[in-house]
Design brief:
alpha/beta, TIM Barrel, 2 domains, eight-stranded parallel beta sheet, 15 strands
C-alpha cells in the first residue's frame, strides 16, 4: 500500500503541474490534495500504528470506527458469524493494558450475572496482599539439573514463518523486558528468537525443525547444539495441538522464504506439512525414554510435553508407566480443542480434540489419582485475555499459563483473519516485507511487556481479594458457575466425577 501511495503522489503532482500550464484551476486541486499527502507521509513515518504505516490515509477509517464504539463495533460483533475468537471486551482489555491506558469501566458489570454460564470468584472480608514477584513457579524435577523459574503468564507457541521477523523480535523483546518465557513454536529457533535474549521454551514438533536430518528424522547432535544455547530454558515436545490434534503443522508455501527454508531445512516455496506423529517414538515407553534423552543432551534442562487430550485411556497408561519406571516429564502443557492456529482443516478445528477445561481437569486429576501430581507441573492455555482467565485456570489446577492470541493483540493484531494467506495488514502474520516493516519492534515489545505486567498485577489483586496469600492455595471450590436460572455450582461440584 505504501508503494501505491507514493505512486499516486507522483501521478497527482505531475498531473497538477501539467494542469497548471494548460488549465489554471488545476493549481487549486494541488492545494486540495496536499493535506492528504502530508497526512500520508506522517502515517508512514509514525511507529505506533502498523495499520496507518502500511495503509497511509486509508488506515484512519479503522480507528474512526473504533472511536465510535460500542455501537458500531458491537453491531459487527453480534452480527458476526465468521468465528472471530475474541469479543470487543476481550480485545479492549488487551489493547488498553498493552498501551497502559485506563482500563476501568463505569456502570457496573458488563455481563448478565443471571445468565447461564456466568462465572465468578468470591471475595473475602479479610483480603491479603499478594506480591506480583511471587507469581512464579519452579519447573524441573529430581533429574533436572537446570530448573527454571517460570512466570504464571508466558507466550504460547507461535513459529517464525507463521509470524513475521518483527513479530518474533517484538514478542521476544517483551519477554526479555518483562521476565517471562517465549515459546518458539515448532518452527525452530530462528536468529530473531536469539537476537534480543529473551528466555525461550524450545518446542520440538514432528518435523524436528532445528534438530532435523535431511531425511526429516531427529538429529541428536544438532539438538544438543541448539539446546545448549543459554536462551533455551525449557524444551517442549509437541504431541498435538488444540486447533488440529492428530494433524501435522501447516506452513503455506507463500511464507517459505529462503531464510525460513534454511532454518527449517525444507524446500523453498513449497507447503511445509509436518507428519501427524513422531518418528522418534511410537508408544509411551519410547516417549519417556526420549524425554530422558533430551534432558541428558540438553545438560539437564526441563523437558515436557504439550498435548491436546485425546483418548483418556492413553493418558492414564502414560501416567501409570511414569510411576512404574519412575520417569516423569518436568511439565505437561494442556491445549484445548478451541485453540487457535494460522492454518488448519475445518473439520479438525471444529470436531477433533477435547475442550481445554475438561482436558485440564482430567490431566490434573489423573496425576493426583496416581499420586504424582507434585512431580509434574501443569501448564494450561485457552483464549487467555484477562486476569480472571488466569485465576480460573489456577483454580482448576494449572500451575502456570500460556497465551497466544492476546499476545498478538498486544502487537496490534486486528483479527483480519489473513494469517494463512500472507496478507496480514498489521505485519504480524506475514512474510511480505512491505507489510512487516509497519510493525515497529521497540514500540510493540513494550506493549507486550505492558500487557504481561498489567495482567499479572491484576491477578495478584484478585487472589488477594479472595483472601488467599498464595496462588497455590486456590482450588475449584473457589470458582463458581451459574448452571441455570436458579442454581450456582462450584467447579469442585461440577467436576466431582470427571476421573
Amino acid at each position: 500500500m505504501r508503494k501505491e501511495f507514493y505512486t499516486a503522489l507522483v501521478v497527482v503532482l505531475v498531473a497538477n503541474v501539467l494542469f497548471y500550464f494548460y488549465w489554471m484551476p488545476g493549481l487549486l486541486s494541488l492545494f486540495f490534495f496536499v493535506p492528504f499527502f502530508a497526512l500520508g507521509i506522517r502515517d508512514i513515518r509514525q511507529t505506533r500504528h502498523a495499520i496507518k504505516s502500511n495503509f497511509p490515509v486509508f488506515g484512519h477509517f479503522r480507528y474512526l470506527l473504533e472511536s465510535i464504539r460500542p455501537e458500531i463495533n458491537q453491531y459487527f460483533i453480534e452480527s458476526n458469524t465468521d468465528g472471530r475468537p475474541f469479543n470487543r471486551e476481550q480485545r479492549s482489555v488487551v489493547y488498553q493494558r498493552a498501551k497502559k491506558v485506563l482500563d476501568t469501566v463505569p456502570f457496573g458489570t458488563q455481563h448478565d450475572v443471571y445468565k447461564q454460564g456466568y462465572e465468578f470468584v468470591t471475595h473475602s472480608m479479610y483480603p491479603k496482599h499478594v506480591d506480583e514477584k511471587d507469581l512464579r513457579i519452579t519447573v524441573g524435577g529430581e533429574k533436572c539439573k537446570q530448573p527454571y523459574s517460570l512466570s504464571l503468564l508466558n507466550i504460547s507457541a507461535m513459529s517464525f514463518g507463521s509470524l513475521s521477523t518483527n513479530a518474533i523480535l517484538s514478542l521476544n523483546g517483551g519477554a526479555k523486558d518483562g521476565g517471562f518465557a517465549h515459546n518458539t513454536g515448532e518452527g525452530g529457533i530462528s536468529p530473531y528468537h536469539l537476537e534480543l535474549g529473551g528466555d525461550l521454551i524450545w518446542q520440538i514438533g514432528t518435523g524436528y525443525f532445528g534438530c532435523r536430518t535431511h531425511e526429516g528424522t531427529f538429529d541428536p547432535q544438532l539438538f544438543k547444539t541448539n539446546a545448549s544455547r543459554p536462551q533455551v530454558k525449557m524444551i517442549e515436545i509437541k504431541l498435538s495441538q488444540g486447533a488440529k490434534p492428530g494433524h501435522g503443522g501447516i506452513l503455506s508455501g507463500k511464507k517459505v522464504t529462503p531464510e525460513i527454508a534454511q532454518i527449517r531445512n525444507v524446500p523453498m516455496g513449497k507447503d511445509v506439512i509436518s507428519p501427524p506423529g513422531h518418528s522418534a517414538f511410537s508408544d509411551a515407553a519410547e516417549m519417556l525414554k526420549f524425554i530422558e534423552t533430551l534432558r541428558e543432551l540438553s545438560g539437564g534442562k526441563p523437558v515436557g510435553i504439550k498435548l491436546c487430550l485425546g483418548h483418556r485411556r492413553e493418558f492414564e497408561e502414560l501416567v501409570s508407566l511414569m510411576v512404574e519406571k519412575n520417569s516423569y516429564p518436568d511439565f505437561i502443557a494442556v491445549d484445548g480443542a478451541e485453540g487457535g492456529t494460522g492454518a488448519a482443516p475445518l473439520e479438525f478445528t471444529n470436531y477433533m480434540g477435547m475442550p481445554g477445561i475438561d482436558a485440564l481437569v482430567i490431566v490434573v486429576d489423573t496425576l493426583k489419582k496416581f499420586g504424582v501430581r507434585e512431580k509434574v507441573k501443569v501448564l494450561a492455555t485457552g483464549k487467555i485475555t484477562t486476569a480472571f482467565d488466569i485465576v480460573k485456570l489456577l483454580c482448576i489446577g494449572a500451575d502456570a499459563t500460556y497465551a497466544a492470541r492476546s499476545m498478538l493483540l498486544a502487537l496490534g493484531c486486528i483479527q483480519a483473519l489473513r494469517c494463512n494467506n500472507n496478507k496480514c495488514p498489521t505485519g504480524v502474520a506475514t512474510q511480505d516485507p512491505n507489510l512487516v516493516k509497519g510493525l515497529h519492534v521497540p514500540t510493540k515489545r513494550e506493549r507486550v511487556k505492558n500487557f504481561h505486567a498489567e495482567t499479572l498485577g491484576t491477578v495478584a489483586h484478585i487472589i488477594g481479594a479472595m483472601g488467599v496469600s498464595k496462588f497455590q492455595d486456590l482450588t475449584r471450590a473457589d470458582l463458581y458457575k451459574r448452571v441455570d436460572d436458579n442454581h450456582i455450582k462450584t467447579y469442585q461440584e461440577i467436576y466431582a466425577s470427571m476421573v
